[in-house]
Amino acid sequence: MPIYDYQCKACGHQMEAIQRMSDAPLTDCPACHQPALSKQVTAASFRLKGKGWYETDFKTGKRKHGTQESSSSGGGDAKTPAA
Predict the structure, then answer these.
(1) In this structure, is the dihedral angle defined by the CA atoms of residues 68, 71, 75 and 76, taken in order, positive or negative?
(2) What pLDDT, in 10s, does the model give residues 13-48?
(3) Is 33 left (phi over 0), alpha (psi -120 to 50) or beta?
(4) What is the pTM of this model?
């Protein structure tokens, strides 16, 4: 759901509100109780609901975030055995 910024024209109080896009804009200021809230023009922000997003989602093979598979078969991560 989108997060909207509001500012009261009467007292200057600023706030954020999580609302559906279809919801009517808020009008009453929670600080001064005047019907003077106006929606601000800001960068879009939103909240994802659900189990979440992880860097491993939609990845295939051994690829990790920000890396690509090596095309050479030599090298690799060799570990030395503990003595």
Answers:
(1) positive
(2) 999 999 998 999 999 999 999 999 999 988 766 666
(3) left
(4) 0.54
